[in-house]
Amino acid sequence: MRGPARARLEIDLDAVAHNWRLLAARARPAACAAVVKADAYGLGLAPVARTLRQAGCRTFFVARLEEGARLRAHLPDAEILVLDGVGRGEEAELKAHRLVPVLNQPGELALWRRYAAARGRRLPAALHLDTGMTRLGFTPAEFAAVEEEDLAGLEPVLVMSHLACADEPDHPLNAAQRARFAAASRRFAGRVRRSLAASSGIFLGPDYRFELVRPGVALYGVNPVPGRPNPVRPVVRLVAPVLRVFTLDAPATVGYGATFEAPAGARIATVPVGYADGLPRAASGRGRARIAGIEVPFAGRVSMDLLGLDVSALPEGTVAPGCEVEIVYGPEGVDRLAAAAGTIGYEILTRLGRRFVRHYRGGAA
Ligand SMILES: *Cc1c(COP(=O)(O)O)cnc(C)c1O
């Protein structure tokens, strides 16, 4: 009567490789790294990273030491940088996995330098400069105070900063951050790579690219230029089977809180996708799904494991248990769901990856 009751997250690794090549071509002559923190934005660190490595990517960023250690096991020959930097007691593990800490403050620089000195080894380090995000990184004053001898025993491999408003091309902070970064990093120009742009920053123009760009979310299909056509290919599709269908012979409400009233004659389909799977509850009554190419609205509140859809627009008899429903689909699927939930594609992606069965297509999986 019906097929398996499980939803699946389809991940198109060929699209990830395509997006990396597209961004790399756009960024040239700057090199193109890949940000694979948070389990490659929820899509699976190992298959995504192996695919990117095969596409030609050599430099990878993760957020946490554990992520870097995991990644090293899959990419023996890549350069791996850890954005969270180095904490006390983490030095040996960083070195054991040949991870490069992104030093975010003077204390981290001192810690990493002491470790290098104690080991009698020159160790690679990236330096992060805060130019207007006020999150991580040396302030321009702290950075100016770093003398050459403070770097003794270290091999600076990258100087970087991060843009706060790169997805708003007209925001004045972009040019201000660029100017601060260019000025503060000038002493390293020509001998150490500099990096400012993530996904959206690549599209702010050549002045923002320096020697290395570090896209994350655009690799995974999220539009780096909101409001303009998406230049990257969609990567994820979320598909779920219909569990059951109601055809109402009298008006009824749907779901918790009885927030949705369906008239007599309406048809309501239930699918096994809920907020515990990463479908935001905030998309209740606002999201849309697609069945047989026809868009249908969410009906009522998103439950923990289930979602109702108003399928009245589809001809009677066409929606039955086992029918496939697309919850994330099309060229801006992640962005559309994010907009319906009042959030951003980043948050949708990083939450979707946990509970669904993942199906990979193509790539180096
Ligand atoms: C997450 C992150 C990136 C990647 O940003 P996207 O917007 O996903 O491209 C780059 N640099 C830093 C410092 C980050 O934290």
Provide tags for this entry:
365 residues; single chain; binds pyridoxal-5'-phosphate; alpha/beta; four-stranded mixed beta sheet; 10 helices; 2 domains; TIM Barrel; 23% strand; seven-stranded parallel beta sheet; Lyase, Ornithine Decarboxylase, Chain A, domain 1
Give a topology summary.
Blueprint: E1 8-12, H1 13-27, E2 31-32, E3 34-35, H2 37-42, H3 45-55, E4 59-62, H4 65-74, E5 79-82, H5 91-96, E6 99-103, H6 106-119, E7 123-128, H7 140-144, E8 154-160, H8 172-185, E9 193-195, E10 212-213, E11 236-241, E12 244-247, E13 252-254, E14 260-262, E15 267-271, E16 288-291, E17 294-297, E18 307-310, E19 324-328, H9 333-341, H10 345-352, E20 357-361
Parallel strand pairs: 1-20, 2-10, 3-4, 4-5, 5-6, 6-7, 7-8, 8-9
Antiparallel strand pairs: 1-11, 11-19, 12-15, 13-14, 15-18, 16-17
Helix pairs in contact: 1-3, 3-4, 9-10
The structure holds pyridoxal-5'-phosphate (PLP).
The site of pyridoxal-5'-phosphate (PLP) has 11 residues, from loops.
Structure explained in plain terms:
By secondary structure, the protein is of the alpha/beta class. The chain is 27% helix and 23% strand. It folds into 2 domains: 13-220, Alpha-Beta Barrel (TIM Barrel), CATH 3.20.20.10; 236-361, Lyase, Ornithine Decarboxylase, Chain A, domain 1 (Beta Barrel), CATH 2.40.37.10. It has helices spanning 13-27, 37-42, 45-55, 65-74, 91-96, 106-119, 140-144, 172-185, 333-341, 345-352; strands at 8-12, 31-32, 34-35, 59-62, 79-82, 99-103, 123-128, 154-160, 193-195, 212-213, 236-241, 244-247, 252-254, 260-262, 267-271, 288-291, 294-297, 307-310, 324-328, 357-361. The structure holds pyridoxal-5'-phosphate. Pyridoxal-5'-phosphate is lined by residues 35, 37, 83, 162, 198-199, 214-218.
